[in-house]
Protein backbone atom coordinates (compact mmCIF):
# COMPACT_ATOMS: atom_id res chain seq x y z
CA UNK A 1 0.00 0.00 0.00
CA UNK A 2 1.47 3.38 -0.99
CA UNK A 3 2.91 5.50 1.80
CA UNK A 4 1.92 9.16 2.35
CA UNK A 5 3.56 11.82 0.16
CA UNK A 6 6.76 13.22 1.69
CA UNK A 7 9.20 15.74 0.21
CA UNK A 8 12.90 15.07 0.67
CA UNK A 9 15.18 17.65 2.26
CA UNK A 10 17.93 19.52 0.46
CA UNK A 11 21.47 18.22 0.35
CA UNK A 12 24.53 19.41 -1.54
CA UNK A 13 24.88 16.40 -3.79
CA UNK A 14 22.50 13.87 -5.29
CA UNK A 15 23.38 10.19 -5.60
CA UNK A 16 24.22 9.49 -9.25
CA UNK A 17 21.92 7.37 -11.40
CA UNK A 18 23.27 3.86 -11.58
CA UNK A 19 22.34 3.06 -15.16
CA UNK A 20 21.82 -0.39 -16.60
CA UNK A 21 24.68 0.20 -18.96
CA UNK A 22 27.34 1.90 -16.80
CA UNK A 23 28.70 1.88 -13.29
CA UNK A 24 26.99 -1.29 -12.11
CA UNK A 25 28.45 -3.04 -9.07
CA UNK A 26 30.00 -6.45 -9.56
CA UNK A 27 28.05 -8.07 -6.75
CA UNK A 28 24.79 -7.66 -4.91
CA UNK A 29 26.86 -7.45 -1.75
CA UNK A 30 28.39 -4.14 -2.94
CA UNK A 31 27.64 -1.00 -0.88
CA UNK A 32 24.47 0.77 -1.87
CA UNK A 33 24.19 4.42 -2.89
CA UNK A 34 22.68 6.97 -0.61
CA UNK A 35 19.01 7.78 -1.00
CA UNK A 36 18.44 10.46 -3.65
CA UNK A 37 17.42 13.86 -2.36
CA UNK A 38 17.48 17.43 -3.66
CA UNK A 39 15.49 20.62 -3.68
CA UNK A 40 12.25 20.07 -5.55
CA UNK A 41 12.95 16.39 -6.17
CA UNK A 42 9.83 14.24 -6.09
CA UNK A 43 9.50 11.06 -4.12
CA UNK A 44 8.31 7.81 -5.62
CA UNK A 45 4.78 8.51 -4.43
CA UNK A 46 4.53 11.66 -6.55
CA UNK A 47 5.59 10.39 -9.95
CA UNK A 48 2.85 9.58 -12.46
CA UNK A 49 2.17 5.94 -13.11
CA UNK A 50 3.82 4.34 -16.15
CA UNK A 51 2.21 2.94 -19.22
CA UNK A 52 2.78 -0.68 -18.29
CA UNK A 53 -0.64 -1.94 -19.42
CA UNK A 54 0.02 -1.69 -23.15
CA UNK A 55 3.51 -3.11 -22.68
CA UNK A 56 1.99 -6.09 -20.86
CA UNK A 57 -0.30 -6.79 -23.80
CA UNK A 58 2.68 -7.07 -26.12
CA UNK A 59 4.08 -9.76 -23.82
CA UNK A 60 0.67 -11.46 -23.72
CA UNK A 61 0.76 -11.64 -27.52
CA UNK A 62 4.24 -13.18 -27.34
CA UNK A 63 2.98 -15.86 -24.94
CA UNK A 64 0.03 -16.51 -27.24
CA UNK A 65 2.51 -16.93 -30.07
CA UNK A 66 4.56 -19.50 -28.15
CA UNK A 67 1.39 -21.40 -27.18
CA UNK A 68 0.22 -21.41 -30.79
CA UNK A 69 3.54 -22.66 -32.14
CA UNK A 70 3.65 -25.35 -29.41
CA UNK A 71 0.20 -26.56 -30.45
CA UNK A 72 1.18 -26.56 -34.13
CA UNK A 73 4.31 -28.57 -33.36
CA UNK A 74 2.29 -31.06 -31.30
CA UNK A 75 -0.06 -31.63 -34.24
CA UNK A 76 2.78 -32.62 -36.63
CA UNK A 77 3.65 -34.44 -34.19
CA UNK A 78 6.86 -32.85 -32.89
CA UNK A 79 7.09 -32.59 -29.13
CA UNK A 80 10.55 -32.41 -27.56
CA UNK A 81 10.01 -30.14 -24.52
CA UNK A 82 13.57 -29.28 -23.45
CA UNK A 83 14.94 -29.15 -27.00
CA UNK A 84 12.15 -26.77 -28.03
CA UNK A 85 13.22 -24.08 -25.53
CA UNK A 86 16.97 -24.70 -25.71
CA UNK A 87 17.42 -22.29 -28.63
CA UNK A 88 15.89 -19.45 -26.67
CA UNK A 89 18.48 -19.80 -23.91
CA UNK A 90 21.27 -19.99 -26.47
CA UNK A 91 20.14 -16.73 -28.09
CA UNK A 92 19.70 -15.00 -24.73
CA UNK A 93 23.21 -16.07 -23.77
CA UNK A 94 24.74 -14.89 -27.04
CA UNK A 95 23.06 -11.48 -26.94
CA UNK A 96 23.06 -10.55 -23.25
CA UNK A 97 26.17 -12.32 -21.98
CA UNK A 98 28.16 -10.75 -24.80
CA UNK A 99 26.94 -7.32 -23.73
CA UNK A 100 27.66 -8.09 -20.07
CA UNK A 101 31.24 -9.01 -20.97
CA UNK A 102 31.52 -5.79 -22.96
CA UNK A 103 30.41 -3.74 -19.94
CA UNK A 104 32.19 -5.68 -17.19
CA UNK A 105 35.28 -7.19 -18.73
CA UNK A 106 36.38 -10.72 -17.88
CA UNK A 107 37.64 -9.98 -14.36
CA UNK A 108 34.45 -8.27 -13.20
CA UNK A 109 32.31 -10.87 -14.99
CA UNK A 110 34.04 -13.79 -13.23
CA UNK A 111 33.79 -11.96 -9.90
CA UNK A 112 30.04 -11.51 -10.47
CA UNK A 113 29.63 -15.24 -11.14
CA UNK A 114 31.64 -16.13 -8.04
CA UNK A 115 29.43 -13.94 -5.82
CA UNK A 116 26.01 -14.24 -7.45
CA UNK A 117 26.19 -17.23 -9.79
CA UNK A 118 24.30 -19.49 -7.39
CA UNK A 119 21.29 -17.13 -7.49
CA UNK A 120 21.16 -17.28 -11.27
CA UNK A 121 21.52 -21.06 -11.29
CA UNK A 122 18.39 -21.28 -9.12
CA UNK A 123 16.55 -18.78 -11.34
CA UNK A 124 17.53 -20.67 -14.50
CA UNK A 125 16.50 -24.02 -13.02
CA UNK A 126 13.05 -22.71 -12.06
CA UNK A 127 12.57 -21.14 -15.49
CA UNK A 128 13.73 -24.21 -17.43
CA UNK A 129 11.42 -26.48 -15.46
CA UNK A 130 8.49 -24.12 -15.98
CA UNK A 131 9.05 -24.18 -19.75
CA UNK A 132 9.63 -27.94 -19.79
CA UNK A 133 6.39 -28.90 -18.04
CA UNK A 134 4.39 -26.31 -19.97
CA UNK A 135 5.50 -27.69 -23.33
CA UNK A 136 4.92 -31.20 -21.99
CA UNK A 137 1.34 -30.26 -21.07
CA UNK A 138 0.62 -29.31 -24.68
CA UNK A 139 0.82 -32.97 -25.68
CA UNK A 140 -2.50 -33.45 -23.96
CA UNK A 141 -4.29 -30.08 -23.78
CA UNK A 142 -4.12 -26.69 -25.47
CA UNK A 143 -6.18 -23.74 -24.22
CA UNK A 144 -6.94 -25.51 -20.94
CA UNK A 145 -3.25 -25.77 -20.08
CA UNK A 146 -2.76 -22.04 -20.53
CA UNK A 147 -5.66 -21.35 -18.17
CA UNK A 148 -4.26 -23.64 -15.49
CA UNK A 149 -0.85 -22.01 -15.81
CA UNK A 150 -2.31 -18.51 -15.48
CA UNK A 151 -4.56 -19.46 -12.59
CA UNK A 152 -2.01 -21.21 -10.40
CA UNK A 153 0.92 -18.92 -11.31
CA UNK A 154 -1.03 -15.92 -9.94
CA UNK A 155 -1.75 -17.77 -6.70
CA UNK A 156 1.93 -18.73 -6.33
CA UNK A 157 3.21 -15.22 -7.09
CA UNK A 158 0.89 -13.54 -4.58
CA UNK A 159 1.71 -16.02 -1.80
CA UNK A 160 5.49 -15.93 -2.37
CA UNK A 161 5.60 -12.13 -2.69
CA UNK A 162 3.55 -11.72 0.50
CA UNK A 163 5.61 -14.19 2.58
CA UNK A 164 9.17 -13.65 1.38
CA UNK A 165 9.27 -10.17 -0.18
CA UNK A 166 6.86 -8.54 2.31
CA UNK A 167 4.65 -7.19 -0.47
CA UNK A 168 1.37 -5.92 0.92
CA UNK A 169 -1.67 -5.73 -1.33
CA UNK A 170 -4.44 -3.17 -1.11
CA UNK A 171 -7.88 -4.75 -0.47
CA UNK A 172 -9.07 -3.67 -3.92
CA UNK A 173 -6.03 -5.36 -5.46
CA UNK A 174 -6.93 -8.61 -3.75
CA UNK A 175 -10.52 -8.28 -4.93
CA UNK A 176 -9.28 -7.60 -8.47
CA UNK A 177 -7.05 -10.68 -8.36
CA UNK A 178 -9.95 -12.82 -7.13
CA UNK A 179 -12.24 -11.52 -9.90
CA UNK A 180 -9.57 -12.32 -12.51
CA UNK A 181 -9.11 -15.80 -11.07
CA UNK A 182 -12.89 -16.21 -11.16
CA UNK A 183 -12.79 -15.41 -14.88
CA UNK A 184 -10.10 -18.03 -15.40
CA UNK A 185 -12.23 -20.47 -13.41
CA UNK A 186 -15.12 -19.89 -15.83
CA UNK A 187 -12.80 -20.61 -18.75
CA UNK A 188 -11.49 -23.69 -16.98
CA UNK A 189 -15.01 -24.96 -16.29
CA UNK A 190 -16.21 -24.30 -19.83
CA UNK A 191 -13.39 -26.36 -21.31
CA UNK A 192 -14.21 -29.30 -19.05
CA UNK A 193 -17.95 -29.04 -19.70
CA UNK A 194 -17.57 -28.84 -23.47
CA UNK A 195 -14.68 -31.24 -24.06
CA UNK A 196 -15.40 -33.57 -26.94
CA UNK A 197 -18.27 -31.39 -28.19
CA UNK A 198 -16.25 -29.28 -30.57
CA UNK A 199 -15.71 -26.40 -28.14
CA UNK A 200 -12.71 -25.26 -26.15
CA UNK A 201 -9.86 -26.86 -28.03
CA UNK A 202 -9.09 -29.95 -25.95
CA UNK A 203 -6.81 -32.17 -27.96
CA UNK A 204 -7.75 -35.48 -26.41
CA UNK A 205 -5.38 -37.97 -24.85
CA UNK A 206 -4.73 -38.10 -21.13
CA UNK A 207 -6.13 -34.69 -20.14
CA UNK A 208 -5.60 -35.26 -16.42
CA UNK A 209 -1.89 -35.76 -17.05
CA UNK A 210 -1.86 -32.55 -19.10
CA UNK A 211 -3.55 -30.64 -16.28
CA UNK A 212 -1.01 -31.92 -13.75
CA UNK A 213 1.91 -31.00 -15.99
CA UNK A 214 0.40 -27.53 -16.41
CA UNK A 215 0.07 -27.07 -12.64
CA UNK A 216 3.68 -28.14 -12.06
CA UNK A 217 4.82 -25.76 -14.79
CA UNK A 218 2.77 -22.94 -13.23
CA UNK A 219 4.39 -23.57 -9.85
CA UNK A 220 7.86 -23.19 -11.35
CA UNK A 221 6.73 -20.13 -13.30
CA UNK A 222 5.42 -18.46 -10.15
CA UNK A 223 8.69 -19.09 -8.32
CA UNK A 224 10.82 -17.92 -11.23
CA UNK A 225 8.75 -14.76 -11.79
CA UNK A 226 9.16 -13.61 -8.19
CA UNK A 227 12.87 -14.50 -8.23
CA UNK A 228 13.38 -12.55 -11.46
CA UNK A 229 11.48 -9.52 -10.14
CA UNK A 230 13.76 -9.51 -7.08
CA UNK A 231 16.96 -9.84 -9.12
CA UNK A 232 16.20 -7.27 -11.83
CA UNK A 233 15.27 -4.72 -9.16
CA UNK A 234 18.80 -4.96 -7.75
CA UNK A 235 20.97 -5.85 -10.75
CA UNK A 236 21.38 -4.61 -14.35
CA UNK A 237 18.90 -6.14 -16.76
CA UNK A 238 21.54 -7.42 -19.17
CA UNK A 239 23.32 -9.24 -16.33
CA UNK A 240 20.17 -11.01 -15.13
CA UNK A 241 18.91 -12.02 -18.58
CA UNK A 242 22.41 -12.99 -19.71
CA UNK A 243 22.92 -15.22 -16.69
CA UNK A 244 19.47 -16.72 -17.15
CA UNK A 245 20.41 -17.63 -20.71
CA UNK A 246 23.90 -18.84 -19.75
CA UNK A 247 22.86 -21.25 -17.00
CA UNK A 248 19.57 -22.10 -18.66
CA UNK A 249 21.47 -23.25 -21.73
CA UNK A 250 23.40 -25.85 -19.71
CA UNK A 251 20.46 -26.98 -17.56
CA UNK A 252 18.11 -27.24 -20.54
CA UNK A 253 20.79 -28.95 -22.62
CA UNK A 254 21.30 -31.58 -19.92
CA UNK A 255 17.55 -32.17 -19.68
CA UNK A 256 17.11 -32.64 -23.41
CA UNK A 257 19.97 -35.14 -23.42
CA UNK A 258 18.54 -37.13 -20.49
CA UNK A 259 14.75 -36.89 -20.77
CA UNK A 260 14.05 -36.11 -24.41
CA UNK A 261 15.84 -39.01 -26.07
CA UNK A 262 12.68 -41.11 -26.67
CA UNK A 263 10.97 -38.11 -28.31
CA UNK A 264 13.79 -37.65 -30.82
CA UNK A 265 12.80 -40.94 -32.48
CA UNK A 266 9.03 -40.52 -32.27
CA UNK A 267 8.93 -36.90 -33.51
CA UNK A 268 8.58 -36.07 -37.20
CA UNK A 269 11.66 -34.23 -38.48
CA UNK A 270 10.97 -34.42 -42.20
CA UNK A 271 8.04 -32.01 -42.19
CA UNK A 272 9.28 -28.67 -43.53
CA UNK A 273 7.03 -26.78 -41.12
CA UNK A 274 9.04 -27.90 -38.09
CA UNK A 275 11.86 -25.43 -38.73
CA UNK A 276 9.46 -22.54 -39.25
CA UNK A 277 7.42 -23.31 -36.15
CA UNK A 278 10.57 -23.69 -34.02
CA UNK A 279 11.88 -20.38 -35.34
CA UNK A 280 8.60 -18.61 -34.58
CA UNK A 281 8.46 -20.16 -31.11
CA UNK A 282 12.05 -19.11 -30.34
CA UNK A 283 11.63 -15.54 -31.59
CA UNK A 284 8.43 -15.07 -29.56
CA UNK A 285 10.24 -16.31 -26.45
CA UNK A 286 13.23 -14.06 -27.17
CA UNK A 287 11.03 -10.95 -27.28
CA UNK A 288 9.15 -12.10 -24.19
CA UNK A 289 12.30 -12.74 -22.14
CA UNK A 290 13.73 -9.39 -23.20
CA UNK A 291 10.60 -7.46 -22.23
CA UNK A 292 9.46 -9.30 -19.09
CA UNK A 293 12.22 -7.89 -16.81
CA UNK A 294 11.20 -4.34 -17.74
CA UNK A 295 7.60 -5.07 -16.82
CA UNK A 296 8.77 -6.59 -13.51
CA UNK A 297 10.47 -3.26 -12.80
CA UNK A 298 7.56 -1.14 -13.94
CA UNK A 299 5.02 -3.08 -11.88
CA UNK A 300 5.25 -6.46 -10.15
CA UNK A 301 5.18 -10.20 -10.74
CA UNK A 302 1.50 -10.23 -9.71
CA UNK A 303 0.57 -7.54 -12.22
CA UNK A 304 2.66 -9.35 -14.83
CA UNK A 305 0.73 -12.61 -14.44
CA UNK A 306 -2.68 -10.93 -14.25
CA UNK A 307 -1.93 -9.02 -17.46
CA UNK A 308 -1.08 -12.26 -19.24
CA UNK A 309 -4.63 -13.51 -18.59
CA UNK A 310 -5.73 -11.65 -21.71
CA UNK A 311 -3.50 -14.07 -23.61
CA UNK A 312 -6.30 -16.62 -23.18
CA UNK A 313 -8.50 -14.55 -25.45
CA UNK A 314 -5.78 -13.85 -27.98
CA UNK A 315 -5.26 -17.62 -27.95
CA UNK A 316 -8.96 -18.23 -28.46
CA UNK A 317 -8.99 -15.88 -31.46
CA UNK A 318 -6.06 -17.74 -32.99
CA UNK A 319 -7.66 -21.08 -32.10
CA UNK A 320 -10.81 -20.14 -34.03
CA UNK A 321 -8.81 -19.05 -37.07
CA UNK A 322 -5.96 -21.59 -37.09
CA UNK A 323 -7.36 -24.65 -35.31
CA UNK A 324 -11.01 -24.13 -36.33
CA UNK A 325 -12.27 -24.20 -32.76
CA UNK A 326 -15.61 -22.86 -31.55
CA UNK A 327 -16.09 -20.67 -28.50
CA UNK A 328 -18.62 -21.42 -25.81
CA UNK A 329 -20.98 -18.74 -24.44
CA UNK A 330 -19.01 -18.78 -21.17
CA UNK A 331 -15.94 -17.28 -22.85
CA UNK A 332 -17.41 -13.75 -23.20
CA UNK A 333 -18.55 -13.92 -19.57
CA UNK A 334 -15.04 -14.86 -18.50
CA UNK A 335 -13.58 -12.05 -20.58
CA UNK A 336 -15.79 -9.49 -18.84
CA UNK A 337 -14.75 -10.86 -15.43
CA UNK A 338 -11.06 -10.52 -16.27
CA UNK A 339 -11.46 -6.99 -17.63
CA UNK A 340 -13.40 -5.95 -14.51
CA UNK A 341 -10.72 -7.59 -12.35
CA UNK A 342 -8.06 -5.55 -14.13
CA UNK A 343 -9.94 -2.31 -13.52
CA UNK A 344 -10.47 -3.08 -9.82
CA UNK A 345 -6.80 -4.05 -9.46
CA UNK A 346 -5.70 -0.71 -10.95
CA UNK A 347 -7.90 1.18 -8.49
CA UNK A 348 -6.00 -0.28 -5.57
CA UNK A 349 -2.55 0.98 -6.40
CA UNK A 350 -0.82 2.94 -9.10
CA UNK A 351 1.68 1.22 -11.37
CA UNK A 352 4.51 3.16 -9.73
CA UNK A 353 3.28 1.95 -6.35
CA UNK A 354 4.14 -1.55 -7.54
CA UNK A 355 7.32 -0.41 -9.24
CA UNK A 356 8.58 0.70 -5.82
CA UNK A 357 9.76 -2.51 -4.22
CA UNK A 358 9.46 -2.77 -0.43
CA UNK A 359 12.82 -4.56 -0.15
CA UNK A 360 14.71 -1.63 -1.76
CA UNK A 361 13.88 1.16 0.66
CA UNK A 362 11.49 4.13 0.46
CA UNK A 363 13.17 5.76 -2.52
CA UNK A 364 14.68 2.53 -3.85
CA UNK A 365 18.20 3.44 -2.71
CA UNK A 366 19.14 -0.23 -2.41
CA UNK A 367 18.20 -1.00 -6.01
CA UNK A 368 19.69 -0.45 -9.43
CA UNK A 369 18.59 2.68 -11.34
CA UNK A 370 18.09 0.98 -14.68
CA UNK A 371 15.43 1.15 -17.37
CA UNK A 372 11.92 0.99 -15.91
CA UNK A 373 12.94 1.14 -12.24
CA UNK A 374 11.25 3.44 -9.74
CA UNK A 375 14.64 4.65 -8.50
CA UNK A 376 15.60 5.97 -11.90
CA UNK A 377 12.28 7.77 -12.18
CA UNK A 378 12.67 9.19 -8.66
CA UNK A 379 16.18 10.48 -9.34
CA UNK A 380 15.27 11.98 -12.69
CA UNK A 381 12.12 13.55 -11.23
CA UNK A 382 10.00 12.51 -14.19
CA UNK A 383 8.12 9.56 -15.61
CA UNK A 384 10.33 7.27 -17.66
CA UNK A 385 8.83 6.71 -21.13
CA UNK A 386 8.26 3.09 -22.06
TrEMBL record:
User: Which is one GO molecular function term here?
Assistant: transmembrane transporter activity
Annotated membrane topology is: Multi-pass membrane protein
* GO CC annotation: membrane
Q: Compositional bias (Low complexity) spans?
A: 24-35
Subcellular localization is given as: Membrane
Q: Which organism is it from?
A: Lepraria neglecta
Superkingdom as given in the UniProt entry = Eukaryota
According to its UniProt record, where is this protein mainly located?
Answer: membrane
Show the stretches that span the lipid bilayer: 86-105, 117-138, 144-167, 174-193, 213-232, 244-262, 274-296, 303-323, 329-348
Q: Which UniProt keywords apply?
A: Membrane, Transmembrane, Transmembrane helix, Transport
**Protein name (Swiss-Prot/TrEMBL):** DUF914-domain-containing protein
**UniProt-listed InterPro entries:** EmrE-like, SLC35_F1/F2/F6, SLC35F_Transporter
**Family designation:** Belongs to the SLC35F solute transporter family.
Q: Which parts of the sequence are annotated with region: Disordered?
A: 1-35
Biased-composition ranges, Polar residues, are 1-11
- Tell me the PANTHER family matching this sequence: DUF914-RELATED, SOLUTE CARRIER FAMILY 35 MEMBER F2
Amino acid sequence: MAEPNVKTTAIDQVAPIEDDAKGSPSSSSSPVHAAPAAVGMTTADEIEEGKAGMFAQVLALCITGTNTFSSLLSEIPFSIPAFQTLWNYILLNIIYTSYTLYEYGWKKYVNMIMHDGWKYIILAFLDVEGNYFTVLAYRYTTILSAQLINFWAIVMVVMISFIFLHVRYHPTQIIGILICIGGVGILFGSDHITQGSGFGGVTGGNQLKGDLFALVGATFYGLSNVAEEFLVSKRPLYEVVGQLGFWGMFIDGAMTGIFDRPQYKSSVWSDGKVGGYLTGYTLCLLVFYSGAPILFRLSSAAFFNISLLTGNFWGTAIGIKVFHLHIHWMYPVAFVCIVVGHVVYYLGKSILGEARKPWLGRNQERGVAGVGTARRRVESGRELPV
